[in-house]
Structures are given as structure tokens and as C-alpha cells.
Amino acid sequence: xxxxxxxxxxxxxxxxxxxxxxxxxxxxxxxxxxxxxxxxxxxxxxxxxxxxxxxxxxxxxxxxxxxxxxxxxxxxxxxxxxxxxxxxxxxxxxxxxxxxxxxxxxxxxxxxxxxxxxxxxxxxxxxxxxxxxxxxxxxxxxxxxxxxxxxxxxxxxxxxxxxxxxxxxxxxxxxxxxxxxxxxxxxxxxxxxxxxxxxxxxxxxxxxxxxxxxxxxxxxxxxxxxxxxxxxxxxxxxxxxxxxxxxxxxxxxxxxxxxxxxxxxxxxxxxxxxxxxxxxxxxxxxxxxxxxxxxxxxxxxxxxxxxxxxxxxxxxxxxxxxxxxxxxxxxxxxxxxxxxxxxxxxxxxxxxxxxxxxxxxxxxxxxxxxxxxxxxxxxxxxxxxxxxxxxxxxxxxxxxxxxxxxxxxx
Length: 410
Ligand SMILES: Cc1cc2nc3c(=O)[nH]c(=O)nc-3n(C[C@H](O)[C@H](O)[C@H](O)COP(=O)(O)OP(=O)(O)OC[C@H]3O[C@@H](n4cnc5c(N)ncnc54)[C@H](O)[C@@H]3O)c2cc1C
Description:
The protein has two domains: about 1-90 and about 115-195 and about 285-370, FAD/NAD(P)-binding domain (3-Layer(bba) Sandwich); about 200-285, D-Amino Acid Oxidase, subunit A, domain 2 (D-Amino Acid Oxidase, Chain A, domain 2). A hairpin with a 2-residue loop joins strand 9 and strand 10 (about 100-105). It has a seven-stranded mixed β-sheet with strand order 10-9-19-20-21-18-22, sandwiched between helices. The protein has helices at about 30-40, 55, 65-75, 80-85, 105-110, 120-130, 255-265, 315-335, 340-365, 375-390, 390-400, 405-410; strands spanning about 1-5, 5-10, 10-15, 15-20, 20-25, 45-50, 65, 85-90, 90-95, 100-105, 115, 135, 140-145, 155-160, 165-170, 170-175, 190-195, 200-210, 215-220, 225-230, 235-240, 275-285, 285-290, 295, 300, 305. With about 400 residues, the protein is an alpha+beta fold. Helix 1 (about 30-40) runs parallel beside helix 8 and helix 10 packs across helix 11 (about 390-400). The mean pLDDT is about 95. The chain is globular and about 70 Å long. Bound molecules: flavin-adenine dinucleotide. Flavin-adenine dinucleotide (FAD) binds near residues 26, 56, 204, 283 and 319. The site of flavin-adenine dinucleotide has 33 residues, from helix 1 and helix 8.
């Protein structure tokens, strides 16, 4: 319900006031999937995002969806495009000591993951909101979230045309990503932020080149880590470990390819197929969790509440899992059982901490610590050997990488 007449309070004047049960800050994967799932349950939402649709669609991020996340998108009617255009990957390759070792997910745990870019997940979710008549405002500014300690929280923003809007809701969800403004609304003396920094970053490229391998290749070398991933038949995504202060513009195509080739080189003569570098970025990362994930009428989801290093390919998957749980408990809470929300953090965090451990473990296993000794390098090789040499080691990696069935972490 929208009232077009201007209203004002201590926070200033607004041009429209709308009432919906749930207001959502952030229309990334977490915000949009939540809006979609609530919409299916008959709960109206308004979501806002400071970026335009085009900006989000052109920001390359995650590429791997675990099987449960892919199933959620297909079975809840977001889109079945993933089944037609996604690539099912039944394993990954670990390269170390100059040799390749395949981890066969299907054989070990009977699961696969899907290579399906986050940009495509976003397009599917945004299209589904359009199709279903959901309200999402892109390109907004001046986000304000008010009164979260009451049961009448409000979300305010300015539209691209300069008009100011307010939504009055029963709950506000902060799905506003790793630099979340919403999480700061939990008073400092009531929140705990668990964090770990890493002394390295990823240099990420998009290159116009054929595929060098059919599945993802995670390479350990004395020069540092590299990840060979794919996008299409003619565009590939690759990363290598770099210094967090590296300037992407200082890296020529030649220097990038020489670095990548050195990290994957081995006695089997494996070489990457090269081509023009279309895009280059330095990606810093950290491990982070904020607790609690609920404060009054505010709930946090996705990167707003936790981030993981990208090595384990968990971040997008965790964001989608959070809101799958959150949608369920919000529907119960709106039906009169507010206590249902108490279960959200317990169910979400169990999976989050398992994913934190896995992402941390993969990161330590594969990256060269700056200033590390020959002992450190050889110990890592011993650990990698332990992983690939026994079925138990390979199964552990396969279970963690493909994600845990939701029933196991709830
Ligand atoms: C290079 C890279 C590779 C990755 N690879 C993987 C992978 O393979 N697998 C995987 O699972 N994860 C991966 N991730 C992580 C994944 O991209 C994130 O975990 C995921 O985007 C989280 O989704 P989200 O909706 O919580 O946050 P986001 O996608 O960040 O969305 C948050 C949205 O909120 C908006 N916003 C922020 N502040 C405000 C505000 N004040 N008002 C309104 N809107 C606001 C932002 O514009 C943004 O669109 C990767 C990340 C990177 C950077």
C-alpha cells in the first residue's frame, strides 16, 4: 500500500510511504532469492540496491554452485537455465609437485557442482522478480534503516530521480554484502566480529582463450597458488596468488601468462591456452563472521553477516542457504510465531562455520605463505599427498567442496 502524500519526521521528509511485511536492503543473490521465496509464500517485499542492474550484471564474481543451491534455484521456479547452459562438473583437479590428481566427486560422494556464473544467477533472479511482479529498486542512494529495535522498522532511500521513499515493515533484512551498513546497526557492545586477514590476495583475469582444462584446476607451486576456471568455450576465468597491494594496471598480458604458466607447469607438460586478457582485478579477501545475525526486527544474511576466502567456492552458496532458511522462519514469524526467528542463526551459523573451516583449510593448503620456509612448502606437499593418496582424504575434500545436504547442517 503506497501513500503518495509527503510525510516528515525527525529523519526528514519522504515522498511516498509503503507498507510491506519485509523490507530488504541489497538485491544481490541473497536479497533477490529471499524476495523470490517469500513471494512464493505470499509475502510481499520491497528490495533496494545502490547499484544499477547493469552494474551488478557486469561484475564477475562467483562461478561454482553446489548441487543443493542449483536445485533450490530450479525447484523453486527461479529458472531452469542452469540445466541448459550451466556445466555440471563431476570433479576438480589438484596439481602439486608438477603432477595432476583428479578428485572425482561422483565416484566419492555421488554429487557434482555446477559451473554457472553469479552474473547468470543474478539475471535469473532479477528476471524472476520482474516476471512475478516483485518490487526491486536499483540505482538507489541514501539508504537508511530506522527503528530496528521496535516491531515497526523502516527502510528509506532516494530513487534515481531524486525522490525519497519509505517502507514500513515488520522485519528488515540486511543483505547488503561484505561492506554492510546494516550490520553496524547491531550495537557495538552486543556484537562479536570474528575475523582473520590473509597476507595475500588473488589476481583475477578474464581472458579470451579456449578452455585449458575441462574442470577447475587448483594448483599449488613453490611460486604460489593458481586457479584455472572456465566461463564459456572462448572466455576463461583464472586467478593467481598475488600481493594485496599489487596494481592490476602494472601487469602486462605477457607477465600474467608467464606467472600463470609457471604455477601450473609440471612433468606432464601441461600448458595453458593463452589469449588477450579482457579484464584484470586484484581481489583481497578475509574470513569474517558477525554474531548475532538477528537484532530486534533486523536480520542479516549472506556476505553482510559472513565472508569466506574464495578458495572453497562457498560464499554465494552460503548466501543462498541463509535466505532459504530465513524465508522459512520469516513466514512462520509473520504467521504469529516470532520465536521461529530464534532458530535462524543456529541453522545458518552451523553451515557458515563448517564453510569457514573448509575455506580456511583450502586456502592454507594451497597458498604459499610470504616468507615461508622450505619446511612450510614441503609440509604442504605432505598434506596434499595425504589428501589425494587415500579414499578418505579425497572423500573429505569432495564432501566439503560439493556442500553438505541442507538436512545435514540444519
Ligand atoms: C572474485 C570472487 C570469486 C568468488 N567465487 C565464488 C565461488 O566460486 N563460489 C561462491 O559460492 N562464492 C564465491 N564468491 C563469493 C560471492 O560472490 C559472494 O559471497 C556473494 O556475492 C554474496 O551474495 P550477497 O547477496 O550476500 O552479497 P552481494 O552479492 O555483495 O550483494 C549485496 C548487494 O547489496 C548492495 N548494497 C550494499 N550496500 C547497500 C546499501 N547501503 N543500500 C542498498 N544496497 C546496498 C550491493 O550493491 C550489492 O548488490 C566470490 C567472490 C568474489 C569477489
